[in-house]
Amino acid sequence: MSLTKFKEKYSNLLPEVLSEVSLSLAGRVHAKCEFTRKLTFDVLSGEGDRIQTMADSAHYSSVEAFYKSNKHVEHGDIIGCLGHPAKTINGVIDGVYEMGRVFRNGQIDATHNPEFTTCELFMAYADYNDMVVMLECMLSGMVKSIHCSYKITYHADGLENPAMEIDFTPPFKRVKMIPELER
């Protein structure tokens, strides 16, 4: 089924899963987020439309089978999906992030400074590891989408000085906060 026909047919779906309906869709991966090792979200685009798919390891024979099936899917790939039409209830996914320009330095002064961008992320019931996975997904995904690679070249001291390479390949290195601050 085309993405356009899918959206036409299921756009008014109530928050439910139509488990009695199985269908296949194909499209180009526009965005990809590995929410956890057991759950991924892809945004597929095609024919001028986009839909979000969710792959859950519960629908595979094992977590390893799920991982092997999904680990090679990259932004820009054309993939096929088999599943059930569904719409989630608002609030089912309790994690959000927001990126925005910062024009003021808070309480420091009232000057406008448009070259800063902030990133805030929140997740209900999340611990440190959940937050790191969400941040890794967001940052590495943005870098990969923009540069077609997890690695970027950065000229910290100007173009005339040597560049440094920054690697955003997940997983990121974990450090203990207090010992690192005391270093």
Automatic annotation (TrEMBL):
Keyword list, A-Z: Aminoacyl-tRNA synthetase, ATP-binding, Ligase, Nucleotide-binding
Pfam families in the cross-refs: tRNA-synt_2
Keyword Electron transport tagged: no
Alphabetized GO MF terms: ATP binding; lysine-tRNA ligase activity; tRNA binding
BP GO annotations: lysyl-tRNA aminoacylation
Domain Aminoacyl-tRNA synthetase class II (D/K/N) intervals: 91-182
Entry GO terms, CC: aminoacyl-tRNA synthetase multienzyme complex; cytosol; mitochondrion
Species of provenance: Leptotrombidium deliense
UniProt protein name: Lysyl-tRNA synthetase-like protein
